[in-house]
Each structure stands twice: as C-alpha cells, then as structure tokens.
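[job 4417] fold queue: 2 targets
>>> target A
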Amino acid sequence: MMDESPEELQEIRREAEQIDVHKYRRRYRALMTLAVLAFCAAAVWVAIRMAVAGRNPCERVRDYYCRKAPDPAKCKLYEVILKESVEDESARMRGVIRDQCLTKINRLKEEDGVVLE
C-alpha cells in the first residue's frame, strides 16, 4: 500500500534524480590520486637525498674549493685527496681519508656556516 500522494511521489522522484550516485567514488579516486602523488614525491625526495649522501665527501669538499670558493691551492690539494680516497690500495686508508673529508665538511658547517651538498 502506498501512503504517498502523487505529488509526494513526484517530489521523491525529483529528489532521487538530484542524488549523485558517483559522489563517493569520485572522492575516493581523488584521495587515492593525492596519496599516490604524495608517495611519489616522497620517493623522489628520498632518492635525491640518498644520491647526495652517497657522494664521496672528498668530492664535495673539492667541488667547494674548486667551484664555489675558488682557491687554486686548496683545489689542487683536494684533487689529490679525492684521487687518494678513490684509488688507494687499502680500503681502510680510503675510509680514513673519507672520514677526514667528513670532518672538514662538519668543521666548515660549524665554523663558517657553509653547507656542502
């Protein structure tokens, strides 16, 4: 049995036609797109940070003295140090040289406020 009058049925039909049945699907897709974009941005950021952190610290110091703050004497010195940090026969010695370059990077940061990338 129907309790609604024809006018009420027509009003219900009009309201039903105005309902957007895809509203939540579109919202879900938009949120998933946003989440995927955020994940991709984070992945790119991590990859860039890893690439920068993976560089030889002696190369970073050499780049600083040869390009950003041109000092011919220190540039030549760090060219030699970089070469030794890569080509020395002893892995332990290469590690010691790289540690010294890291110490130089930290000292430049603390004393001069220079951040090497």
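>>> target B
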Amino acid sequence: MTAYRKASIRDLATAAYELNGRFLQGIVRQDKEDGRWLVGNTSIEEWLSRHEGTDVTVIVLPMADDQPLQTKVCTTCGRTYTGVECPHCREVRTRLRGR
C-alpha cells in the first residue's frame, strides 16, 4: 500500500468534514484483550455501527512524511502541483461558487 503525505490527507479530511463526513485518524491496532480492531482508541466496529444502514465510503490512507512529493500537471490549467488537486483550480472553483 502506498503511503501518502500528511498534508494531502488533512486536505482530504477537511474536504470530508466540509461535506458533513466523518473520519477516524490514529494507529490501527488490535486490542489484545478482546481482539477488537481500533484506530487510535476508537473501536472500528463501534464507529461503523453508528453508520449502520447508511451508504458510506471508508477511506484508509497510510500517513508518511518521508515520501517524496509527486509533482503532477493539471489537465485543466496546465500548472504543476503536488497533492490531491490543483490548488489554483480549487481556488478558482471556490471563488466562482461564492464560498
């Protein structure tokens, strides 16, 4: 599994929050006493049970600061950028939508 930079993941988490989404962040581990899977101190089963009957997307991205940033070329404006999306086009979209 590829590791992603923390800044890009925080951008994605912020976007999820702005869409009234929820996310967990922390180290994935299995509780030695009862075998439950945890992210940080939160039981994944317990967290998922809050969303029972809801259509959801669960995203798991390993965080790493030691990975080199991959430079991309925006297919819309032609500028180079790093991260999830072109910051120039994101800023223009936000400005034009009035948010």
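[job 4417] complete. Note on B: Residues 6-18 form the longest helix (13 residues).
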